[in-house]
Amino acid sequence: MEPTRLRLTLDPSAEIEAAARELTARESQCCSFFSFEFNRVFDGLDLDVTVPVAYVAVLDGLVAHTNVAATEDPVA
To answer: Based on the structure, what is the number of domains in the chain?
Structure first.
């Protein structure tokens, strides 16, 4: 994966997709340097997030945030 791109594989449910599309639309209004692309795959929904080279640190922050969220206990 390139340093300017992040791929997240989401649950393919309609609820998750709708929420992700709403969130990315709001994020695009706020931070126009983000580019979002959704693609259906066999076992989920891929969300590709790309940024220009100048914003790699912002994308790295998003990666760190997703890593923390992935390790948290959802029932805590």
So the answer is: 1
